C-alpha cells in the first residue's frame, strides 16, 4: 500500500492544543469533506461503522425529499448500515437555508454525543460545514421576508441584476460568491440591507471564532482529471437511474424552476430540457460541465478553511485503507485532548 503525503493547512489548535478543561470537555466532531464524486460516501460509512458513529449530511440539496438521484443520496441499504441525519427533512417546495441547517445539525450532534456515539459531518457544502464548526451566530441578521421576495422578483425580471447590486454593496463578497449562486447573493444583500454592514466583514469575524468542538477536519481530493472522469461517470449513472423521470415527478408535484431546490445541479438543466430549451445531448453536456465547475468551486472553498488535513484518495488502495488512516488521525487527535 502506498500512502500519499498529508497536506495540512496552517498550524492550529490541532497541533498546538493547550489541554485546558474547556478544551477537553468539548464534544467530538469528525468532518469528512471534499468535492462531489470524490468518494466521501463509502469512506464515511466505513468510518461510522468502525468508530461507532452516525452520519450528518452536509449537503444543501439532500435535505429535500424526493430528490434522491440528482443529489446522490446514500442508498436505502446504506442508510440501514449507518444512521443518517439531515436527509429528507423538508419538501422541495419549502425554503431551507444555512440558519435552519446549523440549528438542526447542532441538535443532531448533541443527540449523537448524548448516546455515546461519534458525529461524522459529511458532505460538500462548505458554507454549511463552516456554520456548524464555528457555531456561527445568525441571530444578528434575521431575514426580512418582504425584502427577500423583492430581490427574488427583481432577479426573475432582470437576471444578473442582484450580482451587480452586490458588486456595489460589497465587492469583496462578490468576488467570493459565484454569480449563479443566487441564494448566497440574496443572503449577502439581505445582510447588508438589515445591518448596513458588509457580510464579508461579518464572515471575517466569524472565521476567528473558536470552534466549540474537538474536531478533525479531513478533506478528500483526487487528481483533477480523475475527479472529472468520476463526475462524468456519476452523471451517466444518474441518467441511467432515472434523473429525467425524477425531475418530471418533481415538476408534476409543483416544483418550479425558480425554487431553491430546483437550482440543484442536474435538475435545473433537466428542467430546461423538459421545457424544450435544450437537446438531450446538450443537457447531458451541461450537467457534466456544470458539475465539474461546481467541484472546482468546492475545492476553492475548502482551501480557504484553516485546520484541515487534505488526503489524496489515490494514496490508498481502497476506501477501507483510507478510512483506517483517518481513524488513526482521529485517535491521535483525541489522545492529544486527554
* CATH class label of the largest domain: Alpha Beta
The named CATH superfamily of the largest domain: P-loop containing nucleotide triphosphate hydrolases
Mean pLDDT comes to: 89
CATH architecture of the largest domain: 3-Layer(aba) Sandwich
Structural class label: alpha/beta
Cα-to-Cα separation, first versus last residue: 31 Å
Salient structural properties:
alpha/beta; Histone, subunit A; 338 residues; seven-stranded mixed sheet; Rossmann fold
Please characterize this protein's 3D structure.
The protein has 338 residues and is an alpha/beta fold. The protein folds into 2 domains: 7-135 and 214-242 and 291-335, P-loop containing nucleotide triphosphate hydrolases (Rossmann fold); 140-204, Histone, subunit A (Orthogonal Bundle). The protein is built from 15 helices and 7 strands. The longest helix is centred in the last third of the chain and has 24 residues, at 280-303. The radius of gyration is 20 Å and the shape is globular. The protein starts with 6 loop residues before the first strand and ends with a helix. 37% of the residues are buried.
Amino acid at each position: 500500500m502506498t500512502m500519499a503525503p498529508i497536506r495540512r493547512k496552517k498550524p492550529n489548535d490541532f497541533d498546538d492544543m493547550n489541554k485546558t478543561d474547556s478544551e477537553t470537555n468539548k464534544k467530538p466532531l469528525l468532518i469528512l469533506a471534499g468535492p462531489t464524486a470524490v468518494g466521501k460516501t463509502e469512506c464515511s460509512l466505513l468510518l461510522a461503522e468502525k468508530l461507532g458513529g452516525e452520519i450528518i449530511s452536509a449537503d444543501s440539496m439532500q435535505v429535500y425529499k424526493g430528490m434522491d438521484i440528482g443529489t446522490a443520496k446514500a442508498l436505502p441499504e446504506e442508510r440501514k448500515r449507518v444512521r443518517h441525519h439531515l436527509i429528507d427533512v423538508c419538501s422541495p417546495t419549502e425554503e431551507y437555508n444555512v440558519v435552519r441547517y446549523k440549528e438542526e445539525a447542532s441538535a443532531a450532534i448533541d443527540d449523537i454525543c448524548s448516546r455515546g456515539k461519534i458525529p461524522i459531518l459529511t458532505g460538500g457544502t462548505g458554507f454549511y460545514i463552516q456554520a456548524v464548526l464555528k457555531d456561527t451566530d445568525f441571530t444578528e441578521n434575521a431575514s426580512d421576508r418582504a425584502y427577500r421576495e423583492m430581490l427574488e422578483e427583481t432577479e426573475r425580471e432582470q437576471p444578473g441584476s442582484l450580482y451587480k447590486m452586490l458588486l456595489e454593496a460589497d465587492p469583496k463578497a462578490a468576488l467570493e460568491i459565484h454569480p449563479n449562486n443566487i441564494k448566497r447573493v440574496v443572503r449577502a444583500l439581505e445582510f447588508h440591507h438589515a445591518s448596513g454592514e458588509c457580510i464579508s466583514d461579518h464572515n471575517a469575524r466569524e472565521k476567528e471564532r473558536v470552534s466549540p468542538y474537538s474536531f478533525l477536519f479531513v478533506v478528500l481530493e483526487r487528481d483533477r482529471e480523475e475527479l472529472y472522469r468520476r463526475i462524468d461517470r456519476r452523471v451517466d449513472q444518474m441518467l441511467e437511474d432515472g434523473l429525467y423521470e425524477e425531475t418530471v415527478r418533481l415538476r408534476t408535484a409543483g416544483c418550479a424552476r425558480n425554487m431553491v431546490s430546483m437550482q440543484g445541479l442536474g435538475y435545473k438543466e433537466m428542467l430546461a430540457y423538459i421545457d424544450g430549451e435544450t437537446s438531450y445531448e446538450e443537457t447531458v453536456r451541461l450537467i457534466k460541465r456544470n458539475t465539474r465547475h461546481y467541484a472546482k468551486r468546492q475545492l476553492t472553498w475548502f482551501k480557504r478553511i484553516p485546520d484541515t488535513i487534505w488526503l489524496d484518495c489515490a494514496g490508498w488502495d481502497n476506501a477501507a485503507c483510507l478510512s483506517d488512516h483517518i481513524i488513526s488521525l482521529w485517535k491521535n487527535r483525541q489522545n492529544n485532548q486527554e
